[in-house]
Task: inverse folding
């Protein structure tokens, strides 16, 4: 099958659900007509086999995740999805594997359909398996949730539950074992993360800053602190409780406390929203969480200075440096 | 050096020259404010080491070309550049090579600066060297040059000169030898192609369809014919003359005629514009060519049916199938 047939068969869909797509896949460019009075949010991510996923990864989950991590960036900006492009390098054995392509494109396009975010262009080539997605979204002028808006005294919030993706990864790597029900729920989080788009939109005008948790809670919080020129004090117990209330809650008791703390504070791949909001906005944050069907937990507050402090229930401090996430080239 | 430092040092520039960039690199998404009454054109391309460029490729030229091939898609749509994103997978030895990174980013950002097309986001990761660029452009509603607009009786035109990139590639692969001056000029075309953006904009309202020549003249013409539901008759001699008037013109006499014909009709990597326009528009096409400083040659016309016919000066026909370009998975 040729390059053009491959696009036609697996990736070309009528870009339904969006009057803003004037022209989709198949010309030199796609043409979009964004609504007047909107700003365009744009983000790119690249996933490489062996680094971001294993060769035997479920292709449907891979398609889902490749788009989900990009949609998560839109969510963290408070933007609504508009459209996306896919650049795909495929080794010959993948290009010649219809079952793999069918599953990958199905997982990808199902999530795209859920969020009304059509595939409008891209590129395929031979090469080591690499997925590069660029997503476009819309946000009203001045309402985007930037990293730089955190203010002294703001609450620090996080959506949903943290640490499960890292728990699953550790189990798959045989770093540790998990009870079957805990592993099942945790794998879902690792392989099919949920971009918090509805919460992001609901937080417009409510949150003062936001980021999505991809590298680990404290590492991503550092980006907000640096961009905003502030420090923060985080309550380790409140963070731990987000893990314990997750789908792994039933079995969380079987996981050593120090591992639970590490995977929660530094695990990464959570794709939850980490955001700040003035204390006067607490009711509105909880309402945004309720209307979007996404729980939100208050885990600390913004302080003067630039330090990130991590506090035990007894008031003593933990060194946060061990939880500052990973760096792809470190 | 970490991932974030790498972006900061080599790729983060103040997105100057564009009031439309509200927020550039460094948040979850970039924010753009496209002008009202414009459509957004979007295109993605992916370049893989060993397939699209050699490991010893000049990094500055590589940066130039990675963006140029995307800008060429905008040109073929008649769109003006707005901004671009870069996703970059780097093997450890490249990530640790400041000279390579400096040259690559310089080549990339110099071309971006020339066309007022700022880098507004992206991703870096470890992996086999892979460059994936997504470019955004603007075009007034209804004025985009689509592949599907060719009409019976239209002239077929091509900009600039064809075949030099393939001549250079063949010489570098030692398939043949070229005189030094011919090789020098041809390598420039291969390594630093010129996106025909000014011509694309000048052809709005003049051309009936357009595509950029990336896979080879006849192969790309087939895309126009299929999208438009028409056939074409191409004058092989007129196409050959575009090669002879190129910078290789001086030395073209030293290249066998059949090789010149093959590289011109099927060479690829030319990034010229192939377009159609009504015969009544000939003066306007020539004026668009003159105002944009880009020569344009008339090489044939659109016919009924779906066949692509290739005609010798004596009226006899050549079989075009041998010149229908290559397919990445064929």
Result:
């Amino acid at each position: 099958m040729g390059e053009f047939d491959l696009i036609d068969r697996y990736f070309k869909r009528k870009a339904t659900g969006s009057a803003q797509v004037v022209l989709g896949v198949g010309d030199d460019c796609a043409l979009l007509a964004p609504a007047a009075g909107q700003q365009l949010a744009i983000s790119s991510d690249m996933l490489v086999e062996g680094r971001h996923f294993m060769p035997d990864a479920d292709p449907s989950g891979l398609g889902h995740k490749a788009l989900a991590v990009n949609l998560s960036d839109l969510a963290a900006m408070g933007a609504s999805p508009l459209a996306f492009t896919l650049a795909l390098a495929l080794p010959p054995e993948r290009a010649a594997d219809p079952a793999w392509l069918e599953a990958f494109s199905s997982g990808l396009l199902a999530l795209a359909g859920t969020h009304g975010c059509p595939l409008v262009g891209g590129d395929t080539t031979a090469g080591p398996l690499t997925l590069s997605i660029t997503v476009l979204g819309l946000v009203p002028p001045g309402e985007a949730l930037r990293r730089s808006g955190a203010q002294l005294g703001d609450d620090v919030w996080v959506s949903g539950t943290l640490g499960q993706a890292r728990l699953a990864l550790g189990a798959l790597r045989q770093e540790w074992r998990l009870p079957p029900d805990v592993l099942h729920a945790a794998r879902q989080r690792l392989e099919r993360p949920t971009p918090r788009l509805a919460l992001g939109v609901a937080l417009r005008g409510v949150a003062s800053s936001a980021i999505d948790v991809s590298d680990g809670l404290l590492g991503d919080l550092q980006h907000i602190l640096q961009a905003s020129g502030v420090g923060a004090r985080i309550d380790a117990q409140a963070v731990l409780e987000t893990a314990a209330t997750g789908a792994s809650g039933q079995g969380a008791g079987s996981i050593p406390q120090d591992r639970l703390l590490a995977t929660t504070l530094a695990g990464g791949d959570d794709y939850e929203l980490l955001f700040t909001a003035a204390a006067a906005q607490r009711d509105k944050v909880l309402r945004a969480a309720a209307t979007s069907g996404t729980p939100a937990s208050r885990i600390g507050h913004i302080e003067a200075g630039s330090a990130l402090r991590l506090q035990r229930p007894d008031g003593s401090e933990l060194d946060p440096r061990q939880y500052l996430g990973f760096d792809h080239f470190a």
The CA atoms of residues 262 and 323 of chain A lie 7 Å apart. The mean pLDDT of chain A is 88. Chain A has two domains: 3-139, 155-320. The first helix of chain A runs from residue 3 to 11.
